[in-house]
Each structure stands twice: as structure tokens, then as C-alpha cells.
Amino acid sequence: MTDLLSAAPEDPREPMSFRDIKQVVLDRIESRVWPPDSLLPSEKDLAEEFSSTRTTVNRALRELAEEGYLERRRKAGTRVLNAPVRQARLAIPLVRDEVVAMGASYRYVLVGREELAAPGWLAARFGLPPQARVLHVRCMHFADARPFQFEDRWIVTDSVPGVLEADFSAIGPNEWLLQRVPVSNVELTFSASRAGAEMAEFLDAAPGDPIFTVERMTWLRGAPVTFARLYHVPGYGLTTRI
Amino acid sequence: MTDLLSAAPEDPREPMSFRDIKQVVLDRIESRVWPPDSLLPSEKDLAEEFSSTRTTVNRALRELAEEGYLERRRKAGTRVLNAPVRQARLAIPLVRDEVVAMGASYRYVLVGREELAAPGWLAARFGLPPQARVLHVRCMHFADARPFQFEDRWIVTDSVPGVLEADFSAIGPNEWLLQRVPVSNVELTFSASRAGAEMAEFLDAAPGDPIFTVERMTWLRGAPVTFARLYHVPGYGLTTRI
DNA sequence: CTTCATATTATGTATAGACATAATAACCTA
DNA sequence: TAGGTTATTATGTCTATACATAATATGAAG
Q: Which residues, including other chains, have CB under 8 Å from residue B81's CB and lie 6 or more apart?
């Protein structure tokens, strides 16, 4: 097995790629050859060591910094972070795609649809004017005829031209919106809530069951677009890897 | 306001950076100038349009692909993804840092510590041999004297030299581990569970309350290191933005 | 000795060209 | 006409150099 702490691959003819360099640097960080808070050699010095160029070394170190291992500042140099600020990346798929990826078939059912003045709590969350109108849509998503997710969504009608003409009987609001509204900013909040009576009925749960809940707020060019609460069937877990 | 759909900034003397190019391309995607599934002009053509080089255009498009907007393949070109596969990035801070960031003061208390054979469910999860030993540590994390998080952790003793000598009375196992064990691979699962009697007592909750739960499994160079369940005080939400 | 100005250094990013390679298009042969 | 081969193209990445700029070190002056 190649000694990854060495600078060069065993075959001297094979140049070190930016990925090779990342791996060597990461190995040195993890083995404490370069301990937390220590200053790395300059890019210029590393380029010499790896028989590479500053641009290639820069890319390797920049990506390690983006991944939370290093801190870089001009002139100050590159430092190993004391506690890596690791970041998990969560893919946010369409619920249809998520169900299909589970190997199940997807089904959608509209539960309710009404146009109304934005409730106070929503106007407050979004900073909406008092008379703002929203479309409130509730729907169910099924996986192989079993409940998977209950969706409770409010759409700001001024932000989505044509939304009042959409009846959402055949297609869910999220898929409809994705076709029409590119969304720039999303805020997600994961939490646990308690199943109320209606929730329990739709999700085949018992009232009081703990429900994994995702709140999703979206904006387009600074204007609020939607607020959705997604309630998952009991037992659901959202998994990601770093 | 500068018309961002134009290729060049108004001031012809200011060259377009890779960030400018990203923004123009993103604007064209969001405004459907380049609709979903469409093929973008080649990097060479875009470099000409932006009076730039392939390397600069490549960086802009590569980052947009990493952010989930584009799909790129050699020779096949660059396409706009039908549904952006957006990814949220979750910073995974130390619980101490999370509490301090909230403006509260942090306190740690060891609840229990015992060495034992790995329970069957854990051996199964990690693929451990039947006689594997683990250190089971339970502890509480407080924010301003209020319960914040209950931590239930199993540490594979073979993977962590010195762990049996650690009593964890003054410092939590996670901080202790971070000082000694760089962790390469992490799997996180977010879910909702129900507060049992002990949990309710520690977290100042009622039995049966929904509890936002994070399971964290870690490996180093392929070997299992820890399995932790983090239970959060009722009302806790984990927020991230895309 | 302290403060301010200047020099130096290390990273951030751009350019131009080169080579590698995956994927598609075009061409040739049976 | 279909299948196989070859050419072409578009992206992936590297090199070498240059310029920008943030941050630190050094030196000069009061």
C-alpha cells in the first residue's frame, strides 16, 4: 500500500494531481504530522515538494478549506483548524424522487386548497404586509400506497403569477413551483413535533406520536415565495454522510 | 441596477471574474433564458462571449455544477438540470460552540460511564466481532443551566487507544475524541423519537414528548469509532440555508 | 520606545496554452 | 443498412506566469 504521507507517488512519472495533493495533506492533518493550529508550508514550498505548481496546490488547499479542515488568509498563510468545521451536505430531492429512490412507487393526493389572507404568524415570519394573500395547500405523498409525507404549504400569491389558476389536483405544488419559479434562497429547519389528530389520521400514526418535521421557507430575489411544513411518517430518518 | 443578464459589466475596464460569470449564468438559468434540460454554449464560446478564458469559465460552471444547477460531461457539454439538486450545507459544530453561539454559557455533566461488550444492535450496525468492547458514556449538555442536549454514546475501545483511561468527568467524550482522533467518515441521521422516562427527566420534558434526535456514526480509516445519539430539548430546531 | 510608512510575503485569481479523456459525430466497409 | 472504426469536440486538469490584495515584517522618524 502506497505510503500516503510521502509527497510523491511511487511512480515518479505519474504527476501528482490536485486530488493526490488533497489526500496527502489530509493524511498529514489526520496523523498530526501537521497538528491543529499549525501553519502549513506556503503554496510555493508545497508546489516544490509535490513537483507541481501553485495553481494545482491552491486548488487542493482551497477545497480542503471549503471542506472545513483549513483556514486560509492572504499573507497569513494556511492553518490547520483546531476542530474541523465539518459540513454535511444534504441533497434536497423532490419527494417523488425520494420515494422512487427508495424503490417504491409514488402517489400524490390533494387534501385541501384555499385562498386566504396570510395568517398572522406567517405574515410575521415572512415580513408580509397585513393584507397579503396566500394559497394554502395541504396534500399527501404516498410510497407504495403507504403514507410517506404530509405537506402543509402556504404560497404567496403575489410572488407566483398563475398560482391561483393551479388546482393542484394532479400535481403537487412543489413540482408545479419548480417548473415555474426558480428559487434562489431556501431556509430549512429540522425538528420534532407531535402528531395531532388530523396528522395522525393521514400519516397512519397515533395522536401524540413524534413526527420528524422539516420547515422550508423560500424566497426569490428577496421576495418570500413559500412556507412549507413537511411531516414524515413515524420512523422516518434523514441520513447524510460527510 | 446593472442588467445582470448581459455578458459584460457596464464598465468595460472591469474584467468579468469567475464570480461574475457564475452570476450571469445563474440569472439566465433562473429567468429561463437557458431553460431546464437545455444545452449551454461550450466553454470556448462562453469564454469568447465574456472576453475571458476557458479556465475562468470552467471554474464558474464547475462551481454551479457542484451547487446542483448544472450537469457537465466531457464532449456531451453542460446542461441545465431539470430540477436543481440543491444541497444544504450543515455545519456540525461542537455542542459547546453551538451553545456559546446562542449567547448562553455551556456546562457539561457526566451521567454514566461503563465498559461492556458491544450490545448486539450496535455490533450489527457497525459490523463488529461478537466480543468487541465498547465504552458507554451518557452525559448532559446545558445552556445557561437549562438542559440542552442528552448524549448517549458508545465508543469502540479498540479504535481509540487511551479511551479507557479517560473518565469524562470534566470534559465530554466528543471534545476528548476530537483532540485525539481525527475522524474521516461521518454518517448523520436526523429523526424524531419519543422521550422515555429518563430522557424526560434529564431534558425537562414530559414522557412521550417528541424529541429531535441526531444519530452520528463515525469511522477512521474504515474502522468504526463511535456511535452517538444526541437528544435535544423539546422545541429545538436545526436550521440551515442554501 | 512608539507610531507610522514602506517593503515583503503569501494567498486570490486571471490568462494562455497544453495535454488527457470521455462522448459524440462522421465515415467506411461488409 | 448496420456495425465498427476513426475523427472531432467539449470538458477535466496542469503548467507557467502575471497581477491584485490582504496581512505581516521591517525600518525610519519623532
A: B36, B68, B69, B70, B71
Q: Is residue A10 scored above 90 in pLDDT?
A: no
By percentage, how much of chain A surpasses pLDDT 90? 77
Residue contact B191–A236, C-beta within 8 A: yes
Cell of B183: 475522524
pLDDT over 80 (residue A140): yes
B211: nearest CB among A86, A190, A192: A192
CB A140 within 8 A of CB A109: yes
Topology classification of domain A95-232: Chorismate lyase (3.40.1410)
Asked whether the beta carbons of A5 and A32 are under 8 A apart, the reply is no
Which one is the CATH code of A18-80: 3.40.50.10540, 3.40.50.10490, 3.10.150.10, 1.10.10.10?
Answer: 1.10.10.10
Instruction: Kindly report the nearest CA distance between residue B81 and chain A, in angstroms.
Output: 11
| Per-residue pLDDT at B218 exceeds 50 | yes
The lowest-confidence range among A31-35, A79-83, A182-186 is: A182-186
Name the residues in A54-83 having a C-beta closer than 7 Å to nucleic acid strand D: 54-56, 59, 73-76
DSSP lists the bridge partners of residue B188 as A240, B216
